[in-house]
Design brief:
Strand order of the largest sheet: 6-5-7-8-4-9-10-11-12
Family: Belongs to the RecA family. RadA subfamily.
Structural class: alpha/beta
Protein name: DNA repair protein RadA
GO molecular function: ATP binding; ATP-dependent DNA damage sensor activity; damaged DNA binding; hydrolase activity; zinc ion binding
Strand content: 25-35%
Number of domains: 3
CATH class of the largest domain: Alpha Beta
Distance between the termini: 86 Å
Keywords: ATP-binding, DNA damage, DNA repair, DNA-binding, Hydrolase, Metal-binding, Nucleotide-binding, Stress response, Zinc, Zinc-finger
InterPro entries: AAA+_ATPase (IPR003593), DNA_repair_RadA (IPR004504), P-loop_NTPase (IPR027417), RecA_ATP-bd (IPR020588), Ribosomal_Su5_D2-typ_SF (IPR020568), Ribsml_uS5_D2-typ_fold_subgr (IPR014721), Rubredoxin_2 (IPR041166)
CATH architecture of the largest domain: 3-Layer(aba) Sandwich
Number of strands: 23
CATH superfamily of the largest domain: P-loop containing nucleotide triphosphate hydrolases
């Protein structure tokens, strides 16, 4: 019998099949079959490797010439350069992932137009035609760059060959899920196609020193689509978050081999593309109304201090099971804070529907938002509000205690810059100041600082 041209191996039990199936017939697991190259007849690949290969000639780290480091390429957006660790590194591979319609293609076309002033750039699109990209380029003012080349291709082989030609210093691929290798028969976007196409592209980039930016899709849960190995292969992983229909959009570094992962760039979309928000705190608080349930939180977006409004709405429930809804805040964390409020204070929330909203489409991951969330819920439930000119931050423990947070000085400086008069914060972790009203636990915070 002729040797099969392809084989699919179950990643759970190792069973082999000649065609892909959704469910492994041996172990019963779903979506575990991955295409692999059939082994040659005779010795296994491991056995053959014992007699192959050559001895490598290592060099000491001290003997490496530091002058061989290539200078980074600026994206034209200072905040994005900071997120990348100083700019795009030649030979580096960056993965940019985000929800559909977030502005990934717009941002990359803006970057391409800027870099094309001094370097050769190739924009390879597998999702859009040349006419579609040209229309966007005309809107962004990027169509007149002579050093900006464009190809519409879904062949990973052709794009890798173009990179190896050495004609382009920066290559942008939109997107990795549309590429496919001719030798693999599975459809684009499958695990085998994404893994092997990425390896071919990355190997070509490392050989020529070209900087490559890959666009990645995300799942319904917000994680990067495809195999996890894709994130391990690349040097930098950028996450594009925010409200795709309006509000602010945030670019964060989830992984960065060449810089910090604590930075973030905040953008807003207009007719001319994405623009950096110079003073996001003022923009987020511009339409705020001083009412019960409204609390200003001093938080951090990366290392950048930011003031955002937390809104809470508390209503009697119409059903037997109260509803808890959070926009921009983790729902599990919200349920935990509600339990702390009920157990450690006199608030009764078991028969109340509670809604939390972070204004501006921001998504909070800062533990220092706990105190602001609790104060907003208590304010809405009691019909009382905080004194005007007050910002709030602090982590809340299960015992109701308010714990210290990082970068207190940055939060206070941002609050003072926008004219706030006091801050409710934990007593530890900062220098003593009359601006900070120290709170030790949730009960004292509600009693002392909520007024009619």
């Amino acid at each position: 019998m002729a040797k099969p041209k392809q084989q699919f191996i179950c990643q759970q039990c190792g069973a082999t099949y000649t065609k892909w199936m959704g469910r492994c017939e041996n172990c019963g697991e779903w979506n575990t079959l991955v295409e692999q190259i059939p082994q040659a007849v005779g010795k296994s690949a491991v056995a053959r490797s014992a007699s192959s290969g050559s001895v490598l000639d290592p060099q000491t780290l001290g003997s490496i010439d530091p002058e061989e480091r290539m200078s980074r390429l600026s994206t034209g957006i200072q905040d994005l350069d900071t997120v990348l660790g100083g700019g795009i590194l030649p030979g580096g591979v960056t993965l940019l992932a985000g929800q559909p319609g977030m502005g990934k293609s717009t941002l990359l076309l803006q970057i391409s137009a800027h870099i094309a002033h001094s370097h050769t750039v190739l924009y390879a699109s597998g999702e859009e035609s040349a006419h579609q990209v040209k229309q966007r380029a005309e809107r962004l003012g990027a169509q007149g760059q002579e050093e900006l080349g464009f190809v519409a291709s879904t062949s990973a082989d052709d794009i890798a060959a173009t990179i190896r030609s050495g004609k382009y210093q920066v290559v942008i691929i939109d997107s990795i899920q549309t590429l496919s290798l001719a030798e693999i028969t599975s459809a684009p976007g499958t695990v085998s196609q994404i893994t092997n196409s990425s390896n071919v592209i990355i190997r070509a980039a490392k050989e020529t020193g070209a900087a490559v930016i890959l666009v990645g899709h995300v799942t319904k849960e917000g994680t990067i689509a495809g195999p996890k190995v894709l994130e391990h292969l690349v040097d930098v992983v950028l996450q594009f978050d925010g409200d795709r229909y309006g509000g602010f959009k945030v670019v964060r570094a989830v992984k960065n081999r060449y810089g910090s992962t604590n930075e973030a760039a905040i953008f807003e979309m207009d007719q001319e593309g994405l623009k950096v928000v110079e003073n996001p705190s003022a923009a987020l608080l511009a339409e705020r109304r001083d009412e019960d349930g409204s609390v200003v939180l001093a938080t951090l977006e990366g290392t950048r201090p930011l003031l955002v409004e937390i809104q809470a709405l508390v209503n009697p429930t119409s059903f037997g099971y109260p509803k808890r809804t959070a926009s921009g805040f983790d729902l599990n964390r919200l349920n935990l804070l509600i339990a702390v409020l009920e157990r450690r204070t006199k608030l009764k929330l078991s028969d109340k529907d509670i809604y939390i909203n972070v204004v501006g489409g921001m998504k909070l991951s800062d533990s220092g938002a706990d105190l602001a969330i609790c104060m907003a819920i208590a304010s809405a439930a009691a019909g009382h509000k905080l004194a005007s000119g007050t910002v709030v931050f602090g982590e809340v423990g299960l015992g109701g205690e308010v714990r210290s947070v990082k970068a207190v000085d940055k939060r206070i400086a941002e609050a003072k810059k926008l004219g706030f008069k006091q801050a409710l914060a934990p007593g530890a972790g900062h220098k003593k100041s009359s601006f900070i009203k120290e709170v030790a636990d949730m009960r004292s915070a509600l009693v002392d600082y909520l007024r009619k």
